[in-house]
Amino acid sequence: MTLQDEYKKISGLYRETVNEADSLKEVEKERVKYIGRSGAVNEIFKKLGTLSPQERPAWGKKLNILKSDITKCIEEKKSQFNKKDKAEDIFDPTLPGNFSTLPSVHPVTRILREIKHIFSSLGFGIAYGPEIETAYHNFTALNIPKDHAARDMHDTFYLDKEKNLLRTHTSPVQVRVMENNDPPYNIIAPGKCYRRDTIDASHSPVFHQVEGLMVGEDISFSDLKGVLAEFAELFFEGTSVKTRFRPSYFPFTEPSAEMDISCRICGGKGCSSCSQKGWLEVLGAGMVDPEVFKHCDVDSNRWQGFAFGMGVERLAMLKYGINDMRFFYLNDMRFLEQF
Questions:
Q1: If you count Cβ atoms within 10 Å of the first and of the last residue's Cβ in the chain, which end, N or C, has fewer?
Q2: Which candidate, 255, 226, 256, places its Cα nearest to that of 243?
Q3: What is the pTM of this model?
Q4: Per DSSP, what are the bridge partners of residue 126?
């Protein structure tokens, strides 16, 4: 068979036989058959010497093009099998599904949502304020004097010459609400707070707080006790929690009190968790001081109200029996997966 006949035969046959291959192994056989070291195309190259010097360049070029076309055809066929194998590796409908767990809500976020839900059910709205506050809203308007220890540089993150700072509590939100709205008010203000605290089992420089404010014409301390006792019962659902109020002092409330709940571990009998007292401190509260109303241009002769503030991490620790605040921020999956 002449060179020309072999060329014509191969060029008209290779595409059909390669495309009929039904596996990568068969495709490889086709490659060896056509362009392998002893393949048909190389055998034709050996016959170039039978041609005249004038014919050889043209036929050499044609054979190289043929070899290139066969190589391209084989690679395309291989890619079809590779895509199929890859798809089968990704998904096999005959295999059982893999079990996957949905991410859970962080315990602090969970407690924040629960607090907001409870107070919303009690008729409270939700207000937010800036985390970068003025010293006026954070201290002065809340009746905290300039020589108060809370204003010291070692307690507060100041941003510039004691004028702007990272808020140390969410109480400034109640000031902003009263400045920009007419009473009555019935709100809670959840958010982050910042203090220069050393990190330990019960302190963190960044923490969460929920401030509460209720102002009306006939609001009394008994209303404060009723709202907070109802909150405690709903928050610690499923337990017969008791509450008590102890006299305390806060610059922005008068009279002031701290609310305790009966220890959920010992039931009020006394244990190491409650220092044998049977009670655990939960939050601070009191009637809004008239000086705060004065700063907010609210008539204290007509309007009375109460305010309270609670630490979210503290409540989470009490509810879940956690003895170290640092667990909330270590990103330890063994801890977080429990929630």
A1: N
A2: 226
A3: 0.67
A4: 188
Between CA 250 and CA 146 the distance in angstroms is 15
Strand order in the sheet with 164-166: 132-134, 164-166, 158-160
Residue 101 has pLDDT above 80, yes or no: no
Q: How far apart are CA 79 and CA 332, in angstroms?
A: 45
Q: Enumerate the H helices of 205-311 as residue ranges.
A: 221-235, 290-295
pLDDT tens, 200-248?
A: 888 899 999 999 999 999 999 999 999 999 999 999 886 678 889 999 9
167: number of Cβ within 10 Å: 24
From first CA to last CA, the distance across the chain in angstroms is 81
β-sheet bridge partners, residue 286: 256, 307
DSSP state of 109: H
What digits encode the pLDDT tens for the residues 59-70?
888 888 888 888
Token pair for residue 143? Answer: 């009746």
- E-assigned strands of 40-175? 125-126, 132-134, 158-160, 164-166
Give how far the C-alpha of residue 288 lies from the chain's centroid of Cα atoms, to the nearest Å.
35
